[in-house]
Amino acid sequence: ALAVLQGSGLGDAAVVVTRYFGGTKLGTGGLVRAYGDAVRAVLAQLPLAEKIPTHTVMVAVPYSFFERLRLLIEAHHGEILDETFAADITVTARFQASHFPPFQAALAELSNGTLSAEIVETNEETIMPLGAMV
After folding, report:
1. Cα(96)–Cα(55) distance, rounded to whole angstroms?
2. Burial, 93: exposed, middle or buried (Cβ in 10 Å; 0-12, 13-18, 19+)?
3. Span 48-65, mean pLDDT?
4. Residue 47 DSSP code
5. Structure pTM?
6. Which has the minimum average pLDDT: 19-23, 76-80, 101-105, 126-130?
7. Order of all β-strands in the sheet with 89-96
8. pLDDT given at position 133
9. In this predicted structure, which of 16-20, 52-56, 96-100, 130-134 has the lowest mean pLDDT?
């Protein structure tokens, strides 16, 4: 059963197989086969989830730049989490890690190198595609 699970390519997974003795002795080979078949049956119906590394970033911008920043975040598939309005506007956003470097480069280009985003947190976000199966 463990070999089947390890060979599936999944991470962060556990399978518990419970066998109630019904009077038939399976022997060592039979038990291995029965437990392996049980794990294969579970894996055949298991919805997949993917872990994507993400960065939460903060950017402080003048009011005159705010709308351009919002459009830039959207264009780079970011999600605005918070906006704090004070002397400047501080925007907190989340990006997939692979989308952040192009965003950072575009922000520097758009602001003539005066603005940059600071990574304040790195996580993994779990994304579960609908209907995905092993």
Report:
1. 6
2. buried
3. 93
4. B
5. 0.67
6. 126-130
7. 79-85, 89-96, 50-61, 118-127
8. 45
9. 130-134
Q: Where are the chain's structural domains? A: 2-44, 50-127
Q: What is the DSSP letter of 12?
A: S
Question: How many CA atoms lie less than 13 Å away from 84 in the CB half-sphere?
Answer: 8
CA separation for the pair 83, 58 (Å, rounded): 10
Q: Where are the beta strands (DSSP E) in the chain?
A: 50-61, 79-85, 89-96, 118-127
Identity of residue 61: V
Compute the average pLDDT of residues 101-110.
Answer: 97
What span, in angstroms and rounded, lies between the C-alpha atoms of 116 and 104? 6
Q: Which amino acid is at 127?
A: I
Kindly report the average pLDDT of the chain as a whole number. Answer: 89
Which residue type, as a one-letter code, is found at position 80?
I
Residue type, position 57, single letter: V
In CATH, what class is 50-127? alpha beta
